[in-house]
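Reviewers of the previous submission asked for a worked example of the structure-prediction workflow described in the proposal, so we include one complete record here. The input consisted solely of the amino acid sequence. No template or homolog information was supplied to the procedure at any stage.
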Amino acid sequence: QVQLQESGGGSVQSGGSLKLSCAASGDTRCMAWFRQAPGKEREGVVAVDVDGITVYQNSVTGRFTLSRDNAKNTLHLQMDSLKPEDTAIYYCAADPHPCRWPNWYSYDWNYRGQGTQVTVSS
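From that input alone, the workflow returned the following structure tokens.
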């Protein structure tokens, strides 16, 4: 059984930055961040395979940076130039198999954390 623990959410003004972290236990070959805003569907933010291949959602490309520490089984998401539309609950997710490119965001994932709130005010 894999456990995921997110941290680092909070409130910032538009243009600000936040860093999210996800500490994982167990076999987590493919890891990702998803987010869900009130009244909206879940959307994939970024995913990374254990070999380092990383795919970002278009709306965050150039603003968000993902890093993965395989030795510590930890995922970090640096979010810069935040916009009000980035407001959502952010979830860490993991699968024990390779990432299912290209539509990694459309599948059900085996493991998901509790989520951390990110609020960006204008």
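The chain has a mean pLDDT of 96. We consider this example representative of the routine output the project will generate in years two and three.
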